[in-house]
Amino acid sequence: MLKNHEILEEFKKSLIATTKSISKNEKVEVNFIKETPSIEGNLINLSEPNFESIKKNLTYSRAEADSLALVFRFHSKEIHKNLINNDEITNEILNEVEQSRVEAKGSILFKGIKANISKKHLLDLKKKSINQEKKIPNAFKYVAYEKFLDVDFGKFNENNRKIIKEKLGKNYEKIFKDLRDSIDDQKTFGSKIKKYLEDYGFFEHNQNSKTSDEINQNDEINNDENKNNEDNYKNNDENNPSKIETDTSTLDLQESTLMEESDEIGEDSSEGEIEYFP
């Protein structure tokens, strides 16, 4: 029988292999830290697990790794930096909605990833403490994820839906459908979300802000960056020992089951703390 430390090491090896496989980037390295999970260059920093945490939070740990790995697979820093301006709130919104795009794209490919991330988000919503500074960006994050994947977090996301509906008014559904139609194209998606934020008065215009029209004038090569990475690996997947297998099980978000799982998460939950975009 394996000892606890041996089980832990096997779990970490498995998580590293899976994270690298999801990322589809041969330069990616995985590290374990006691601080906030983050990305630094080509390094993915994951929360250092312990035996008790993987017994309680196995899905949660996998979801954190999945989310960060998907950034490498589907997110272009060059495209994203052209969206950023000097307004902190709108930058947070852009970051959160872009992460929801990345997670949705990965979830469409792999049901196992969808199950992991959806359960993490639901658990976070249940444990969520009110952070006024992150209130609107977080609302965009969870509502966008729901709309992009037709997931329903029920009453736990009700307040976030109310916030976004108040901001976007009668065009609420139309806007998220339009964004969902562009989740495969980061440049188009980013231009759309920035234009919507402009139209609905989120931006404090200043000389350092880039408009959505200016974004569309950037080099088209940036838009193909992630697609080229995927194409380079397409023919190698079958020979990859850590290839991700699609989980054919359906996502169960029934409250009775998840309330029990939520109780196990406890203080280990780090909702809203993952640093997706450096």
Topology:
Blueprint: H1 4-23, E1 29-33, E2 38-40, E3 43-47, H2 51-74, H3 77-81, H4 88-109, H5 111-127, H6 135-149, H7 158-168, H8 172-180, H9 186-199, H10 212-215, H11 225-234, H12 255-265
Parallel strand pairs: 1-3
Antiparallel strand pairs: 2-3
Helix pairs in contact: 1-2, 2-4, 2-5, 4-5, 4-6, 4-9, 5-12, 6-7, 8-9
Tell me about this structure.
The chain is mainly α and 278 residues long. It is 58% helix and 5% strand. The chain has 12 helices and 3 strands; from the N terminus they run αβββααααααααααα. The chain has helices at residues 4-23, 51-74, 77-81, 88-109, 111-127, 135-149, 158-168, 172-180, 186-199, 212-215, 225-234, 255-265; strands at residues 29-33, 38-40, 43-47. The chain has a 3-stranded mixed sheet, with helices on one face. β2 (38-40) and β3 (43-47) form a beta hairpin. The protein is globular, with a radius of gyration of 19 Å.
Considering the chains and any ligands shown, give keywords for the structure:
single chain; 278 residues; mainly alpha; 3-stranded mixed beta sheet; 3 strands; 5% strand
Number of helices: 12
Mean pLDDT: 79
**Outline, from the CA principal axes?**
globular
Poorly predicted tracts of residues: 205-272
Query: Strand count, sense and closure of the main sheet?
Result: 3 strands, mixed
Tell me the distance between the termini: 42 Å
Report helical residue fraction: 55-70%
Structural class, judged by helices and strands?
mainly alpha
Strand order of the largest sheet: 1-3-2
Strand content: under 5%
Number of strands: 3
What is the gyration radius calculated from CA atoms?
19 Å
- Helix/strand order, N-terminal first: HEEEHHHHHHHHHHH
